[in-house]
Amino acid sequence: MALNAVRQLRQLNIVRHLSTAAPELKYGDAQVRRTQETRASNHSKSDLYKFYTLPEEVKSSLFELGGVPKVFKEQSQIFNESAILVRSCMIELVGYLKQADKLDGVPCTRFVVYGEFGVGKSLTLMHALQYAQENGQLIVHIPWALKWFAYPKEVSLSTTKEGMVDLNIDAAMWLRHFQLQNKKLLEDPKFVISHEYIWSAREKSEANIPLKELVEHGISRVKYASDVVDALFQEIKKLSTQGVCRTFVCVDGYNCFFTEHSNCRPEDKSKVPPSRVTLTQSVINLVQSDWSNGSIVLGLSPRANLPDRRASPLPLYLLKKEGFESIDPFIPIYVPELNDEEFHNLLNLYESKQWLQLKNVRNEIAFITKQVAQKVYEYCTYK
Amino acid sequence: MFHKLLNKSSLSGLVISRCSTLNLVTSRSSSYGPQFIDPIFKHEDIDRIVSNGELKNYQDIPIKPPTSFQTCSPFYNSVKEKFINYMMDKGNKKLARDVFEYTIKAMKIIQIEKYNKATTEEERQSIILDPYVIIDKAIENTKPMLKLRAIKRAAITYQVPIPISDKEATAKAMKWHIEIAKDKPSQVHFSDNLAQILIDGSQNKGKVVKRKTDLHRTCEANRAYAHYYFG
Questions:
Q1: For the purposes of burial, counting CB atoms within 10 Å of the CB of A241, is it exposed (0-12), middle (13-18) or buried (19 or more)?
Q2: Which residues contact B62 (CB under 8 A, 6 or more apart)?
Q3: Going residue by residue through chain A (383 aa), what tens digit of pLDDT does each one get?
Q4: Which range of residues forms the domain containing residue B42?
Q5: Which residues contact A177 (CB under 8 A, 6 or more apart)?
Q6: Do B165 and B184 contact (CB within 8 A), yes or no?
Q7: How far is B47 from chain A (nearest CA, A)?
Q8: What do you get for the CA distance between the two ends of chain A, in Å?
Q9: CA separation (Å) from A115 to A230, A353, B217?
Q10: ipTM value greater than 0.85
Q11: Would an 8 Å CB–CB cutoff place B29 in contact with chain A?
Q12: How would you label A146-167 residue by residue, b for 16+ Cβ within 10 Å and e otherwise?
């Protein structure tokens, strides 16, 4: 069924190769090219390779508790504005999402954003998240999932599922993130849970209470946070299948769920793999296409893997067989390195912000950094 | 034969150490003789020599090979390389280079923050944004004019003020910066501290400038001993 949806999307004839429409930017043209269009859903080919400023209210409502890459955060703090370069992969992804949103009652489609380290995958996801917020979709956003497995706050054995491990504080923190991102939508009286959940002999959530209360229960009773996350995902699936809302799921660093081991150590001090963590099971269940009226965007990164498996950015290599099969029919979106126009525009921004002060150095920077955005920033920083 | 040579060398060492007060300080000999000139490795310099027709002058002169850090990159800066070498500890150049680069970053962030906060145009133009200009200015402001040397006359050691060469003064200014930046609480990073000290030095204030004026004051006080330098 999901495969059919993918085929349908392909037939809609979305323009894939947008580079021919690019405006020409000459070498050494000192002017920074900017667009005044700040809404992600209105970006078109005419805005390509230009900077737009992320509005402050979007930044505070969507990315207050994470989601912005560290380097971009630092850069926007220094430059006093968060300027994002509109790239062809962003317009491609949002174009697909627009078409997918027109189809009603179709199993949700999966998109996989992949590319080398530092090329701008997370910024592409940020752009898509902005689009989802503008269209009033329910956002389920997991910013940099590796944080759970690399730096877990508290690890305890699960009481409900045998042999599994809970990350309760991390789960509660994520619930807070979810609550902030969907502040307006959760006020809606249509969002109610379908059946009752029993947490312990004395505590339970009854049927037909608002979804907001379920989330608040997870935040106030941290002991049951992992179970609340699982329940919440099941409820979201049901709600969107009923047509109450459209859901946008976004997971950054999805391949970290399939690594061999993590830093999670329960009381017996043995390292458990991510597959034995309850949050992993909940997320993988959410990403399946057994529900409709939603779209799923997954970001893969070599950095989310263990150091011995970072050679290639391709999905099959990063996810291995098990992970690849869990999301099998998907639309791949490759994020390439900066092309010449983007590269010169980026350096124009750095020069206008006085971050790069030397002249006639562009050839050397392009050669050494391979036009990877993060490396360009770091090279300009330290010289 | 070999023993004899060894004895000879140890003897000569003894002689030199005794004569050290007579300004016969030993130094490591260069592998290149005095006839060798410094390498010319920048494109601009080579182009200038060729266009001026001075290439004939270099035909018969031996030239030293450039070291591994002397490159024709536009990012090359001789003061920077010297600074890194002074900062280096136990031959760990990689670390010294990283720390220096973090210093550059910290300086940029401090200055750009000031630039963004400034309200008037005059205020903005007074802020130096190029970190290498800041370093040059800081060194220029903290170069000492004199130095003190202990000279023994009639069983009493005097601190005698004597003139200092430009090269030595530059080295002293750089070393003072590094020495003073190391004196900090353990939470503060060395690079951040050094950045702040360099910016202060470029504005002719701060700890390093104070050390220079202290030295000048001592030299002024010991002015009466100055003639001991001549004998």
A1: middle
A2: B32, B33, B35, B36, B37
A3: 555 655 555 554 444 444 444 444 444 456 889 999 999 999 999 989 999 999 999 999 999 998 899 999 999 999 888 999 999 999 999 999 999 999 888 899 999 999 999 999 999 999 999 999 999 999 999 999 999 999 999 999 988 888 899 999 999 999 999 999 999 989 989 889 988 999 888 888 888 899 999 999 999 999 999 999 999 999 999 999 998 999 999 999 999 999 998 999 888 778 899 999 999 999 999 999 899 999 999 999 999 999 999 999 999 999 999 999 999 889 999 999 999 999 999 999 999 888 988 888 999 999 999 999 999 999 999 88
A4: 30-76
A5: A65, A66, A141, A143
A6: no
A7: 17
A8: 54
A9: 30, 28, 63
A10: no
A11: no
A12: bbbbeebeebeebeeeeebbbb
Same domain, B59 and B142: no
- Whether residues A361 and B75 touch (CB distance < 8 A) is answered with yes
Residues A349, A31: Cα–Cα separation, whole Å: 8
With an 8 Å Cβ cutoff, are A382 and B108 in contact? no
Q: Are the Cβ atoms of A354 and B129 closer than 8 angstroms?
A: yes
**Strands of chain B, DSSP E:** 146-153, 156-163
Residues of B in contact with A78 (CB under 8 A): 109, 112-113
Residue A48: Cβ-neighbour burial (10 angstroms; 0-12, 13-18, 19+) = buried
Does one domain contain both B108 and B191? yes
Task: Give the range of the structural domain holding residue A208, as residue numbers without chain letter.
Answer: 2-334
Number of domains making up chain B: 2
Which residue type, as a one-letter code, is found at position B184? K
Chain A interface residues facing chain B, Cβ-Cβ under 8 Å? 78, 80, 353-355, 357-358, 360-361, 364, 381-383
Question: Is A382 part of any domain?
Answer: no
